[in-house]
Amino acid sequence: MEKNSKSKILLELAQKYLASIIIISYFGAFMLMFYGFQAYWTHYDQTSVPQPIAYSHYKHVTENDIPCDYCHVYADKSKHAIIPPLSTCMDCHEGDDSDSPELKKLLKYWNDKTPVPWKQIHILPKHVYFTHKRHVKAGIDCVDCHGEVRMMDTPRQVSTLTMGWCVKCHDLHGASIDCYECHK
Ligand code: HEC
Ligand code: HEC
Ligand code: HEC
Ligand code: HEC
Ligand code: HEC
């Protein structure tokens, strides 16, 4: 009889415990989903790399449907995708009399004939050979290496750019992992 009531108490405790585990993991999973979702799908401001003009990818690509290759014209043709020159911005902003202080800055660079000193975010060491052309032609999307730039203002580096990162993907796609391919 005594033994029985003890195990009954234990059983009750276990049931209580289980219920909280279930509740906690339920909310835990929910929170993880929420933050994962948010990180990928909401427009977020990026302030860790301040740029001379607050140019927004989100505003241009997502709100105004301008494709990546309108500006990064060499991504499928050459080593560098390139940051567009001011003349590309002027396709749309020449004579723009908007009150936006950021656009005023842009027009000042243009009128002064000075290029905008954009800070480069992704930089490989000099001893590494990388070319956009091969990757873009092989159907690797910008998103695979740069993340959801269309949802960002200023892109941030989402990939490590380490040798392990390059080699892992090469392995996956059956691309070359010979040292001399990347270290010419
Ligand atoms: C296979 C991975 C990969 C893909 C795919 C890729 N990039 Fe890159 N991107 C890089 C790496 C690595 C760098 C740094 C290159 C360096 O330091 O020379 C870079 C640098 C850049 C730069 C700055 C310097 C430069 O090369 O002009 C821009 C702009 C850029 N990428 C845009 C794009 C766009 C737009 C696409 C899609 C059309 C794209 N990238 C696709 C890996 C990639
Ligand atoms: C194909 C057309 C097009 C091109 C090219 C273009 N823009 Fe824009 N830009 C727009 C549109 C449309 C808006 C949105 C206007 C608005 O919402 O008031 C805009 C808004 C802006 C703003 C104002 C943001 C704000 O609200 O203060 C800035 C700054 C800007 N662009 C910078 C640039 C820069 C820098 C370049 C070149 C790298 C560029 N744009 C290229 C179409 C373009
Ligand atoms: C209207 C022109 C324009 C369009 C369209 C555009 N970009 Fe950019 N991009 C820029 C400018 C200007 C910079 C440099 C300023 C900055 O980093 O925000 C830049 C910077 C970048 C960089 C960082 C390069 C580095 O390492 O410094 C990446 C990556 C990039 N763009 C990818 C993309 C992708 C992917 C798309 C399409 C989803 C896209 N861009 C569409 C103008 C554009
Ligand atoms: C998301 C996948 C992916 C990532 C990340 C990636 N690569 Fe590649 N890379 C490929 C694929 C796929 C090919 C084969 C393209 C082809 O067959 O034309 C390739 C081809 C190459 C080539 C040409 C090799 C040859 O056979 O001529 C070089 C060089 C290269 N990558 C360098 C790099 C470097 C350096 C990095 C890291 C900074 C990198 N790649 C990251 C997928 C990737
Ligand atoms: C697909 C491209 C790729 C291939 C293949 C590759 N590497 Fe690398 N390697 C890189 C990149 C990118 C870096 C720079 C980033 C880093 O240090 O992780 C690097 C860096 C290095 C470094 C310098 C590390 C440091 O601490 O500075 C050495 C040494 C090196 N690689 C040797 C090799 C050897 C040996 C092989 C062949 C077994 C090889 N790599 C194949 C891309 C590659």
List keywords for this structure.
184 residues; mainly alpha; 3 domains; flat; binds heme C
Polypeptide structure, described:
The chain has three domains: 1-42; 46-83 and 120-184, no CATH class; 85-117, no CATH class. It is built from nine helices and no strands. Helix 4 crosses helix 5. Residues 40-47 have low confidence and may be disordered. With 184 residues, the chain is mostly helical. It binds heme C (5 copies). Residues 124, 128-130, 134-135, 138, 140, 144-145, 161, 165-166, 169-170, 173, 175-176, 181-182 line the site of one heme C (HEC). One heme C (HEC) binds at residues 124, 128-130, 134-135, 138, 140, 144-145, 161, 165-166, 169-170, 173, 175-176, 181-182.
Secondary structure topology:
Layout: H1 2-41, H2 57-63, H3 68-71, H4 86-93, H5 101-111, H6 132-137, H7 142-146, H8 163-173, H9 179-182
Helix pairs in contact: 4-5
The chain binds heme C (HEC) (5 copies).
Average pLDDT rating: 88
Classification by helices and strands: mainly alpha
Shape: flat
| CA-CA gap between termini | 81 Å
Helix content: 40-55%
User: Which regions have little confidence, pLDDT < 50, spanning 5+ residues?
Assistant: 40-47
Q: Name the hetero compounds present.
A: heme C
Q: Give me the strand/helix succession.
A: HHHHHHHHH
Largest sheet: none
Count of runs of 4 or more consecutive helical residues: 9
Could you give the count of β-strands? 0
Number of domains: 3
Beta content:
under 5%
Q: How much is the radius of gyration in Å?
A: 26 Å
